[in-house]
Task: inverse folding
């Protein structure tokens, strides 16, 4: 008997038929009205993606984010990106002085591999919409755009030093000590990580970055510049401390470095929510592996946590709503190794027996499924594999790109897109020299 045919209440239930009758075809924008209703008063909406290079994941998240901002008053979008780069885009969409002439100019400066994740035409469209939306709003009501990730050690140190040189030269000396400690190593962290476990002369810059963080946090109330610039400096100090921890841990086997990274992203999210009080509400854009509750996957057995789990634990299940994404077939922007040139790679048809294959068999059309009590009753304990594509991708080795998942426990809703296209990187000229379509409904 097929794994998609199960015994239920003394009879036989075909899961593809169940999916079809318990999901909504994504034929037009009205199809997500039920999703907006299900989100209700949640404070954090987590929007996933099954890859970092799929056009439709970005355009659907844009459409959902616009509605959350316009209809439910969400305060900011936080993404799986570096804090300094995203903060520059934040200042552009809020029309700060000297923040850039266009989103395209700002995003051209996103130069850390994989550049295509945020330097793409889809994000340009979102950024220009946000700037226009913010234009008539007071400063404390403008919607923000921030990065949650931990990788930007050198960029964050540089930002801190440049700021402190202007407002607090004495504190800048402490930041310079941290910079000088890291200066002999490359800016990707691997050389520093190896140096920390050198059996002859182990190196650590932990004391320097912790001293810098403590001094910045102690003196922040005294800094008399705009409130976001002060917050930005404090966050860059947290990035430096946690990046040092991350790079030191990544040389070891086990889940430690992953947990440092996701805990940092969750703590950053908390600081952003607090910064936007009294009614801070967050939209998060990250890979499914970060926003889908780790306890509903094989990650749990390996001692791994993620933002989805930590957010539910911090704010409560009713205040967090996670939307997972997936597709059956198509193309994706990725590299074949770390630092490789970006390229459009084929995404082969989903693996037989996977969640994506189940949804494909349910009608070969785009669908939205809410994890209602009925869905939870039938599918809540059904564990199937769920595709996860990273920035390094080998389509010929598809078998390694799946994670066992209890989908109704991992997400609050799942958006399935049967066939998808590759993202449009900013540094690749669009076909026909035209900016690509950047909205799911062609509007």
Result:
């Amino acid at each position: 008997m097929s794994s998609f045919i199960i015994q239920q209440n003394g009879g036989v239930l075909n899961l593809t038929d169940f999916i079809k009758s318990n999901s909504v075809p994504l034929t037009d924008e009205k199809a997500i009205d039920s999703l907006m209703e299900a989100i209700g008063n949640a404070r954090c909406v987590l929007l996933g993606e099954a890859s970092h290079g799929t056009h439709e994941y970005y355009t659907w998240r844009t459409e959902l984010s616009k509605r959350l901002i316009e209809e439910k008053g969400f305060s900011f979008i936080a993404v799986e990106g570096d804090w300094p780069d995203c903060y520059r885009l934040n200042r552009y969409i809020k029309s700060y002085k000297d923040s850039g002439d266009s989103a395209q100019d700002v995003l051209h400066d996103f130069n850390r591999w994989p550049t295509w994740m945020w330097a793409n035409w889809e994000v340009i469209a979102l950024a220009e919409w946000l700037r226009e939306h913010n234009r008539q709003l007071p400063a404390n009501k403008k919607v923000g755009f921030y990065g949650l990730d931990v990788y930007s050690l050198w960029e964050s140190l540089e930002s801190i030093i440049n700021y402190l040189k202007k407002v607090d030269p004495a504190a800048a000396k402490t930041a310079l000590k941290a910079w000088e400690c890291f200066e002999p190593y490359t800016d990707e962290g691997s050389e520093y990580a190896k140096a920390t476990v050198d059996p002859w002369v182990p190196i650590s810059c932990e004391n320097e970055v912790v001293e810098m963080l403590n001094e910045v946090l102690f003196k922040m109330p005294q800094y008399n510049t705009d409130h976001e610039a002060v917050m930005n400096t404090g966050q860059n100090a947290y990035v430096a401390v946690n990046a040092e921890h991350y790079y030191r841990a990544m040389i070891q086997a086990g889940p430690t470095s992953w947990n440092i990274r996701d805990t940092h992203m969750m703590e950053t999210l908390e600081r952003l929510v607090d910064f936007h009080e009294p009614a801070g509400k967050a939209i998060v854009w990250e890979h499914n592996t970060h926003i889908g509750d780790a306890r509903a996957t094989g990650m749990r057995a390996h001692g791994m946590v993620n933002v989805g789990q930590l957010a539910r634990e911090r704010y409560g299940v009713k205040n967090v709503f996670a939307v997972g994404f997936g597709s059956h077939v198509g193309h994706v922007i990725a590299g074949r190794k770390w630092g490789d040139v970006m390229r459009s790679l084929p995404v082969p048809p989903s693996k037989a027996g996977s969640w994506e294959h189940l949804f494909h068999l349910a009608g070969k059309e785009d669908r939205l499924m809410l994890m209602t009590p009925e869905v939870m009753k039938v599918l809540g304990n059904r564990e199937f594999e769920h595709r996860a594509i990273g920035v390094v991708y080998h389509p010929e080795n598809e078998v390694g790109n799946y994670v066992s998942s209890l989908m109704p426990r991992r997400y609050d809703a799942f958006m399935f897109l049967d066939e998808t296209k590759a993202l449009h990187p900013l540094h690749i000229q669009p076909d026909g020299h035209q900016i690509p379509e950047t909205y799911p409904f062609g509007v």
Observations:
- The chain has 17 helices and 13 strands.
- The CA atoms of residues 47 and 61 lie 7 Å apart.
